[in-house]
Amino acid sequence: MLPHLPLLPHPPFEVSVIYWYNGKLIQSQSLELDINDPGLLYGATIFTTMRVYENSLDSRLTNWLLHCDRLLLSLKTFAWQQPDWNRLRQGAEIILTHFPVLRITLFCDGREWITGRLLPEDLTEKQANGVVCAVTSAEYNRSLPSHKTGNYLSAWLAKTTSQKLNAQEAILVDSAGNWLETSTGNLWGWCDGCWWTPPLAVGILPGIMRSQLVKWLQYQQQQVKQEPWTMNLVKRFEAIAYSNSVVEIVPIHTVKQPAGSLEYNPHHPSFKIIRSFLA
Fold this sequence. Notes:
- By secondary structure, the protein is α+β, with helices and mostly antiparallel strands.
- 25% of the residues lie in helices and 24% in strands.
- It folds into 2 domains: 19-117, D-amino Acid Aminotransferase, Chain A, domain 1, CATH 3.30.470.10; 123-278, D-amino Acid Aminotransferase, Chain A, domain 2, CATH 3.20.10.10.
- The chain contains 8 helices and 14 strands.
- The strands form 2 sheets. Strands 6, 7, 8, 9, 10, 11, 12, 13 and 14 form a 9-stranded mixed sheet that branches. The protein has a 5-stranded antiparallel sheet with strand order 2-1-5-4-3, covered by helices on one side.
- A hairpin with a 4-residue loop joins strand 4 and strand 5 (112-117).
- The longest helix has 15 residues, at 64-78.
């Protein structure tokens, strides 16, 4: 039986005032941690962020099991304690009644922390007309890129630096200047009649939306080329976008870089193909 829920103000919430932590529902804007907690001192946590469709963790697009698999892979890789998975789901079921987006964080000793938030207010506009991105320095590469850890400082710095340039997103690059991913998602590009995305081997996050889109496009007999995004390649793209489990697919119409901006078509007909996965 689920615990009694406190009465909350109706959305929109500016910040989350309710969260689930270590088996308890808490109404607060603060979280108490031990001053020696590795999660606080070193960012020793892992997390996943999901969008809940149809108010159900079992919806095809919510991908609850894939998000749990992502967490489990990191737990096993780091030899961390697993959480009480039933309790984790119980907390998620409660928080989703208030928020369409869940962020599930796990500590190295098995504690779970679930927060919620609303979808971005301008998401529909961004999906329709695209955003501006800025290419950042290679020093902003994420650590342990195959895992979503609490040490997200580099991606956060990349995004905040880009926002100072009036860009909404940052594009992370390697030491050779090849484009890897954005600060919050995976990259997609269209040219030569097919979609391209950087390969996992270059050191990017294996995004859940990315993997689902690759499988979907291949099922639709659409070729997906997974090759490094060199400067020569990115100049050939007619359209580019980024994806993640929350924003789905967002076109990028302008990329600011030191050598000058690149322009792309956010209304390219190829987006109809990739968006069919969400239909």
